[in-house]
Write a structure and sequence with these properties.
mainly alpha, 0% strand, transmembrane
């Protein structure tokens, strides 16, 4: 068992369960905190997440399934489009208010959180320092998403949703402990997660220009990029 992966999975689950009760997310939603988190997440996408696609391409080539590697980038795009479509539908459809919208929202993000948990075990870079960075940056990302879920669904999320998200992360991690997808499936799953993450970071963690603060954003981006480059 990868001890750091297990601790990270438990840490993500604890964020889902307790962050709202402790008021951590509401403090992060302040302009400076959101700008810092957005900068760190943006740096993570460009310095680490997108290059990770290259690792999965190499795995596909090495497994003699090179004909499928070209599909990774369309799947990356599909992940962005799927989560954009989900957010747009939830925001504009009258049928998606209340319990129906909550169920659809949780279903879509259960997969997202499960993949985050799964790739605690099966990322390209398994250096312990990189695993710590993965936890810190993704922990901030989950915290921002948790705050948005609470804002949109209020009592429903507090009563049910936070447990669903925590369980999804732990289920994904447990699945990663038990088995590993074939290279093609793993690459496409990672591309789907990365595409969704790009959309969610741009939507949730980059504040509007009137609300954002440049210096905290640059500090978050520079600090994250520098630490990733040195690791």
């Amino acid at each position: 068992m990868n001890g750091l992966a297990a601790l990270s999975a438990m840490g993500f689950a604890l964020i889902c369960i307790f962050a709202g009760r402790l008021g951590i997310g509401s403090r992060l939603r302040q302009p400076a905190g959101l700008s810092f988190a957005g900068g760190a997440a943006t740096a993570y996408v460009f310095v680490h997440l997108l290059p990770e696609i290259g690792y999965h391409r190499l795995r596909i080539e090495d497994s003699t399934q090179a004909a499928h590697e070209a599909f990774l980038y369309p799947v990356l795009l599909a992940g962005t489009c799927i989560y954009y479509g989900l957010e747009s539908y939830l925001s504009h459809s009258r049928r998606m208010r209340g319990r129906a919208g909550f169920a659809v929202h949780m279903a879509g993000f259960s997969l997202y959180f499960a993949l985050i948990g799964y790739f605690l075990q099966h990322r390209g870079d398994k250096d312990p320092i990189q695993e710590v960075f993965y936890f810190l940056v993704l922990g901030l990302h989950i915290l921002v998403l948790d705050t948005e879920f609470r804002r949109r669904h209020e009592a429903l999320y507090d009563r049910i949703g936070r447990w669903v998200m925590a369980g999804s992360v732990l289920a994904g991690w447990a699945a990663g402990e038990l088995f590993e997808f074939p290279a093609t499936v793993s690459g496409m799953a990672f591309a789907l997660l990365a595409g969704g993450m790009i959309l969610n970071i741009l939507k949730q963690e980059l504040p509007a220009s009137r609300e954002g603060q440049v210096m905290p954003f640059l500090l978050g981006a520079g600090l994250c990029a520098g630490l990733l480059a040195l690791a």
